Amino acid sequence: MNKLIMSTLVAAGFAAAVPLAIAQANPPAAGQGQHAQRGHHGQHGKQAFRMPGERVEARLAYMKTALKITEAQQPQWDAFADVMRRQAKEADARIQSHREKRAANTERKRPTAIERLEMRQQFMAASSTRIGERLAAQKPLYAALSPEQQQVADRLFAGHGGKHGGRGGRHGGHGRA
């Protein structure tokens, strides 16, 4: 148990240190406003790890270490990790497309109530599909885990895949133990 705690703390320490190191290496320029004061932005006002694809490998490494994936469990882990990577790449493309559409919409025309409902319906259908894909990969992995690993997985996977990365909210922490 002490090894699990220690490896989890070490992994968490590395995960926390990377954004801090980036922030220190790229101090915000004067006049970047409110975001610069909070220290979330580096060079050119970009946040560290803004895109899902930028953080998926760190998240997978943390999860694999915390779960102590064995060689026998590797095929199930690989299938799960592949789904996570593909979904992160797809999320990057969706975000980039959304940003391009917003930039092209110079008149800032607000969608109608019907258009908003249609967009919400499309979003929810796509979200349901993504959850189904993740569930299809996560079930065999979970079944291959020992009872101790399943307890860790219950904490790691709690709420994972939601709008804010499974942390229970925008500034989260609620989905973890």
- The domain count comes to 2
What's the helix-strand series? HHHHHH
Low-confidence stretches: 17-44, 160-177
**Structural class by secondary-structure content:** mainly alpha
Percent range for β-strand residues? under 5%
Number of helices: 6
Characterize the largest beta sheet: strand count, sense, and whether it forms a barrel. none
Cα end-to-end separation: 15 Å
Using only CA atoms, what is the Rg?
19 Å
User: Which whole number gives the mean pLDDT?
Assistant: 75
The proportion of residues forming helix, as a percent range, comes to: 55-70%
Q: Please give the number of β-strands.
A: 0
Description:
With 177 residues, this protein is mostly helical. The chain folds into two domains: 1-48, no CATH class; 50-177, no CATH class. Helix content is 67%, strand content 0%. The protein is built from six helices and no strands. The chain has helices at residues 2-25, 33-38, 52-67, 74-104, 113-144, 147-156. Helix 3 (52-67) runs antiparallel to helix 4. It is elongated and about 55 Å long. The protein starts with a helix and ends in a 21-residue tail after the last helix. 8% of the residues are buried. Residues 17-44 and 160-177 have low confidence and may be disordered.
List the helices and strands and how they pair.
Layout: H1 2-25, H2 33-38, H3 52-67, H4 74-104, H5 113-144, H6 147-156
Helix pairs in contact: 1-3, 3-4, 4-5
In short:
This protein is an all-alpha fold.
